[in-house]
Amino acid sequence: MSTSKTAVRPERPVLRHSSLSGGSFIQDHQQYKPSAPVSQNIGDVLRSPHENLVSPLVLNSNPISPDPEKVKDSGIVHSLFGHVANPLPGGTPKMVATIYYKSSNPVHPHVHPDSSSGSKERLPSPQVPVGSAPTVDIEKLPREPPVPEPQPLDHLYGPYVSQLCLTNFLQIMEGLQTPYQRMNTSHRCLDQEEQPQVVEVTFSPPPNPEYLSFEDLRKHESIWRFEREWNVEVVLQKESVFRRHKRLAVFDMDSTLIQNEVIDEIAKFINVEKEVSEITERAMNGELDFSASLKARVALLKGVPADVFEKLKSVLTISPGARELCKALKALGFKIAVLSGGFQPLAEWLAGELGIDYAYANHLEVDTATQTLTGNLVPSFPIIDATQKRNLLQSIAKENSIPISQTISVGDGANDLLMLKAAGLGVAWRAKSKVQLEAPTRLNGETMTDLLYLLGLSRDDIRELTQ
């Protein structure tokens, strides 16, 4: 009878100090060195407690090959996933979202009950957010159960664009992909690294336009809800060299570059302010034909002294940040125009104050004998209505050989909508509710220099341009 030979196993390895010496910190990290040879099998792992290993245990060994993409480029580049398994091909379209925290208009200004046990403050009364409906008067809205407001989160996680806010935005954008695709994303804090108020997020690829157009994406319900939850405003733009390098900016005057409505100021001189203001408000909300409403308001100004415009110059208030904005744009080589439904003398005065190249507005007829306004417009000059503003934008761009994609337009009234939609970037600035709903983008900041962030400029860039 043959006797079987018992397998001889080497003794259990002894951990010695020498086995830990001779390496460097970098060499001891798996991603910086090739994988160690696999010298163990499943039988070795499942050995009995009294058995010895077939071969000595190699420290820092790993039977799984290292991930070749584990080492990534430095910089603020991130994904909701650990890494991008399949890099996107060159030329993949990109989109940029500029996120502004609305520090001047908190959604929930009250102390949260969790932060102060002694707080007795009641929740605010329901209100319609500006820009979310044609009217903010709750009494004029349909008698239907109100949609539950999203829970305001900025007072919980910080009055700025927090990391959680940014993560939530990326989750929303990635959820809009049809069919689903992972996105490459990166971000920059444009004003300050700590507790930023303005953050620029670049992501690629954008949602498939066959399923969700760019225009629909800008007004998507998920983005609107995100803005309400985090008390922010999001401006979406297609990334291109022309997003960063515009060459023509056109502005409305009343309630945009200046805080006044000029025709209302004139009406104060003859005590018809109430009548004129009511017509102005309805016209700016798009409830009345602009040309007809302008003629009706001008008719009420009959008999006003012709020197009223000189007196008004001391009354007009230039909007916060307008001077700095125009100075920065001129330093960048922009052509600037003011296209106003107001009146030419004040448009020319404002152009001189802000260094604006073009000024177009309406011309009031003056009775030379009495030096008073006749209540009519000069018939030889066209009325600066919505169509004329769009035509002027296009003609000024053509005159200066500027592609329309390199233009930006800014306004607040219904008569600005056509030029806002025609420009490469149209921004409704602190606009009427209907205009905010229909405009390509909208902002409601405290200073007009916020518009410069849309060109990819940082706060340091803006300071240098406005010195």
From TrEMBL:
Keywords: Amino-acid biosynthesis, Hydrolase, Magnesium, Metal-binding, Serine biosynthesis. Residues 18-42 have a biased composition (Polar residues). Its cofactor is Mg(2+). One of its GO terms (molecular function) is hydrolase activity. CDD domains: HAD_PSP (cd07500). Its EC number is 3.1.3.3. SUPFAM superfamilies: HAD-like. It holds the Pfam family Hydrolase. It comes from the Eukaryota. Residues 1-43, 107-145 are annotated as: Disordered. Pathway: Amino-acid biosynthesis; L-serine biosynthesis; L-serine from 3-phospho-D-glycerate: step 3/3. This is phosphoserine phosphatase. It comes from Paecilomyces lecythidis. The gene is SER2.
